[in-house]
Amino acid sequence: MIQAAIFDMDGLLVDSEPFWQDAQIAIFGELGMNVTREDTIATTGIRIDQIVRHYYNTRGWEGPSCDDVCERITLKVIELVSEHKPMMPGVMHALNLCKQANLRIALASSSPMRLIQATLDALDLSSWFEQCHSAEHLKYGKPHPEVYLNAAESLGIDPQRCVAFEDSFAGLMAAKSAQMKAIVVPEAHVAGQERWVISDVKLTALNELTIDHLIK
């Protein structure tokens, strides 16, 4: 029986993926690198420090450290989220359904904790989450399952009794590797890809969620 719901954040609760893309394109461009929109889409769900380190190792640049570049990208995303407050459709519907089903609610994100806090505050969602976990300081980010396992452990609930909500394939793999039920809401331009078949439920928006999706 499902006892907890664990939500991803970027691209699921908040429409921040375009902000991450814009920030990467801008900051890497300042470093003389041509990072395209397609490049940023391909790394959706991956921790930002892993993305930055990948570009440093494969292309390199002169000047700021990887940590400095991560900081500049993160600050830009925080600024944009705080300004625009772009909540995804159906978020309140999904959270209310989880409450109706008496599920504990937590968050497991690849984003830095300060971005998580800034986003939840901007969207007035902080009170909904009993636990919030970031993969920021873990050895591995998604698609590794550790952040999901940590969230389940903090709730005192077996991972197999948790349902995870994701929008990215890296996140989906993390959730399934943690042996959780997985509900995905992929972006429309990738939703038709066959790889989503490993999810338990695929929705086009969170407002399609039903109680049956949660408990069956």
What count of structural domains? 2
What is the residue-averaged pLDDT? Answer: 95
Helix count, per DSSP?
9
What is the succession of H and E elements? EHHHHHEHEHEHEEH
Largest sheet: 6 strands, parallel
Tell me, what's the shape? globular
State the helicity in percent bands: 40-55%
User: What's the total count of β strands?
Assistant: 6
Summing up helix and strand content along with how strands pair, one would put the structural category as alpha/beta
How would you describe this structure to a colleague?
One of its GO terms (molecular function) is 2-deoxyglucose-6-phosphatase activity. Belongs to the HAD-like hydrolase superfamily. CbbY/CbbZ/Gph/YieH family. Its EC number is 3.1.3.22, 3.1.3.50, 3.1.3.68. This protein is of the alpha/beta class and about 220 residues long. It has 2 domains: about 5-15 and about 85-215, HAD superfamily/HAD-like (Rossmann fold, 3-Layer(aba) Sandwich); about 15-85, DNA polymerase, domain 1 (Orthogonal Bundle). The protein has 9 helices and 6 strands, in the order E-H-H-H-H-H-E-H-E-H-E-H-E-E-H. The chain has a 6-stranded parallel beta sheet with strand order 3-2-1-4-5-6. The protein starts with a strand and ends with a helix. The model has no long low-confidence stretch (mean pLDDT about 95).
Secondary structure elements and pairings:
Blueprint: E1 4-7, H1 17-30, H2 37-42, H3 48-58, H4 66-84, H5 91-100, E2 104-109, H6 113-122, E3 131-134, H7 146-155, E4 162-166, H8 169-177, E5 181-184, E6 201-202, H9 211-215
Parallel strand pairs: 1-2, 1-4, 2-3, 4-5, 5-6
Helix pairs in contact: 1-4, 3-4, 4-6
